[in-house]
Amino acid sequence: MVKSNTKLAIFDTFKTKDNALTGEAKRQREIITILASNSNSAEKTRTGISQKMAKKQGIAWKNIYSGIFRDLDEILLPMNIAEEAGRLPLKRGPKALQEIGIPYYQLTKKGILIALSISTEKNREILLKQFFSESESIEKEFEKIMLNLLQKSPNFIHSIFQKYVKAFCENKIKELLPFELSKLKEISDDSLIIQKEIISAFAKLSKQDKEKTIEFLENIS
Predict the structure, then answer these.
(1) Cβ-proximal residues to 199 (8 Å cutoff; 6+ apart), any chain
(2) For residue 203, with 0-12 CB atoms within 10 Å meaning exposed, 13-18 middle and 19 or more buried, which class applies?
């Protein structure tokens, strides 16, 4: 198994299974995706997350509750990826528990950045705008161009976040925040180098050559 050096396991894979994600990686990704969604507060409690995931997998929610509890309390909360967003009142159970309620969670700014690195996340534009709404000035300089590129080349933007967060999981980047693209220069990644080269070259082409290049690329896929 290829395991990250941090506790965050969203990129952990089994080498013997064609780089398939481990169960822990899938579970953490699903928790982050649920917290990134527009689900109601009840679906963002430990029980709510367990029930939603269990329904999708066709299993009993109690069978996965302990894993979700551990991911939240030992990884996502201590690493400031998720945080308590409030508490829901209980109608049943011990009086003391009814009074304090049960916690539900939301992603922090760091959590939103990580959610942007997960390929199954469908709300990328909303998340990207939310991320930049909480950003420092050093991060704001990327906002307009990244939002524009997200419309034109969503897979390219996703690959940037994916490489960035994966580098953090592998201890190649010490801290995710502030979000600085210059940190990617320290990482040797052929796919990003190729993407950068293509964009740079395309920008220098004449209008006629750009049209021919687009026609050429459309024949590839």
Answers:
(1) none
(2) exposed
| DSSP-assigned letters across all residues of 108-144 | -HHHHHHHTT-TT-S-HHHHHHHHHHT--HHHHTTHH
- Residue 206 DSSP symbol: -
Give me the tens of pLDDT residue by residue for the chain, a chain 221 residues long: 555 545 899 999 987 776 799 999 999 999 999 999 988 999 999 999 999 999 999 999 999 999 999 999 999 999 999 999 999 988 776 676 667 889 999 999 999 999 999 977 778 899 999 999 988 777 888 888 899 989 888 888 898 999 999 999 999 888 999 998 888 877 767 777 777 777 788 788 898 888 887 787 788 76
- Locus of tokens 């009993």: 60
